[in-house]
Design a protein that fits this description.
single chain, 138 residues, mainly alpha, Four Helix Bundle (Hemerythrin (Met), subunit A), 5 helices
Length: 138
């Protein structure tokens, strides 16, 4: 099982942030974190992972397709995904979503090159997490 024994840090805004742990940050999911969140209930872990799989793919697609027409709606979608990712220990997704959210809150339009790159990075992180979820289910 993947492990990260650190607890989430709070950012300046007061929101929980994924802990950094060097090589551990390379893993798409922190299963030790998820286990703690679910108090070791494996069926709950699976349920949350499956819900995250569906939600993360949906939000990534909405962001890529430009369904979020304003910087604010882009930021809101990314914020929702970031919270879900933090809850299950998907640190890479959380960090990538935070970047999209920050750019959206700063007024970065979803069609800008900088925002497009952030959304592409988010899609890559989501894909990694989904592949890991699928691997765990197999």
């Amino acid at each position: 099982m993947l492990g990260n024994r650190e607890t989430p840090r709070n950012t300046e805004s007061g929101a929980a942030e994924a802990p950094s742990g060097g090589a551990r940050d390379l893993a798409p999911l922190d299963l030790a974190h998820l286990s703690r969140q679910c108090f070791g209930d494996k069926s709950l872990e699976i349920e949350l992972l499956l819900q995250f799989r569906i939600q993360s793919l949906s939000i990534a697609t909405q962001l890529e397709d430009g369904a979020a027409r304003s910087p604010g709606s882009t930021a809101d979608l990314a914020h929702r995904l970031r919270g879900s990712a933090l809850a299950i220990g998907a640190g890479k997704v959380a960090r990538a979503a935070a970047t999209v959210e920050e750019r959206g809150r700063a007024g970065g339009h979803s069609r800008s090159a900088e925002m497009a790159r952030a959304i592409s990075d988010l899609r890559d992180a989501v894909t990694e997490a989904v592949v890991e979820i699928d691997r765990l289910r197999a």
